[in-house]
Amino acid sequence: MGMKKLQWALALAVLSATGCTSTPSAGAEPTVAPSTSVAVARVCAKPAAGPAKAPAGAVTVDPAKAGDLAAKTKSSPAHTTFWLRPGTHRLDPDRYAQVIPKEGNRYLGAPGAVLDGGKKNQYAFGGSARDVTIRYLTVQGFVAPHDEGVVNHDSADGWVIEHATIQHNSGAGLMAGARQQVRASCLRGNGQYGMNAYKGKGRITGLVVEGNEIAGNNTGDWERRRPGCGCTGGVKFWAVDGADVRGNWVHDNRGAGLWADTNNNDFRIEDNVLEANDGAALIYETSYNAVIRNNTIRRNNWVEGRKAADRGDTFPFATVYLSESGGEPRVRARTDRIEISRNVLENNWSGITLWENADRFCNSPANTSSGDCTLLVRDTDRCARPAIATAPLYADCRWKTQRVDIHHNRFVLDTSVVKCAAKCGRMALLANYGTYPDWSPYQGERVAEAITRKQHNRWHDNVYAGPWTFVAHDPSQELDPAQWQGPPYQQDAGSTFRAGDGG
């Protein structure tokens, strides 16, 4: 059997196993359901142990002496290695008694080494020193304020966090700077975020988040305390340019699992397991250019999706939610589109929603990213009438959901597992009717027409199992698969559908 025929036969076997037995047309590549064998990064249960003895030349830190770590850091030169003995280390009992590393310092925890803030210290490690490394250390019990973080509080560049456990802190467990690497660490049970990738000035470049377990964050339930704040989840990314987020286990967070919000660009989100988050597994909002592939995404959005349904909200709240985000060739990245491919989405509350708010653009009062404009306009003040109604500002003053390519994914829904009767199995491609402000050039159905038919958003070659429906153009248009595939939408060419509950 030739290679082409062998691939076709294997693909048909996979489709038959899922109950999707449509035969590909002559000469066409068959739709192949992706594998569900993505490894799970079970870091928190079995953290890696640090060195049992102090490395040569290291400064030893004694847990019996409160403040020893900060004091020895202050008295030692840059590029010093510190080894924290087994036991619970504490800082001086002042909220600003944090460790201020020097450039190139390394902090290594022995087995059982814990740095505990005792619910008195706000921050563990801060300052602007570059290239600091923290390994094999548990950091817990710090009380950072809302929107602030415990480790790398000042978002310094080049930090490496490996084999660390950052848990049970207020605020964010970890902040991020440029070129930061967070690997094989446990970020769990923090009050707001596991990590808040935010830098007050400039953009964060070259961020790596790999092989971590990010679980149970937002214990403070901030969306309830400040409705609509958009300030919660496993990880929040702001103005990050170039991020590799791979091989993580992001689960059981209150709110979203991963949330990229406002002018992020060039993300690769791959080989992750995103599961049992109360809200969406992934939100990509007012951002650009990403590859989202080979992820296992299951049992997400049950809490927030059900709440929306119970209050009668007809919006298709989804597990993967793209809001005013798309591919933009003029913004430099490793891709010029958003590609969502070879993922398994299983028993989530709904699937993928591509949305664009017609009233959200630069200088609009409806722009919740207050003060921010697109990456295509340097002077936000230019986005005003009458100039905004003419080229190029008409196109460039608005974040657009465009050039999104959704293919070779497997979507499975068993309503008996999700425990829902309706509105939990939707895909969507839509916008609202533009109304606001009164000088907006995007009023009426202009944006709904653009996102649906003119901005190169495309589903194709996917596998569906279960009672899926499709929302197109606006929330009132709910379609069955035949209507979704037919004119005028013509989506999901080459895809296969099995009605009823998936399995």
TrEMBL record:
Pfam hit, one: Beta_helix
Signal peptide: 1-28
Annotated keywords: Repeat, Signal
Carbohydrate-binding/sugar hydrolysis domain residues: 155-309
Coiled-coil regions listed in the entry: none
Superkingdom field: Bacteria
Region (Disordered): 479-503
Nucleotide-binding in keyword set: no
SUPFAM superfamilies, alphabetized: Pectin lyase-like (SSF51126)
Keyword Cytoplasm (UniProt): no
Protein name: Carbohydrate-binding/sugar hydrolysis domain-containing protein
Native organism: Streptomyces africanus
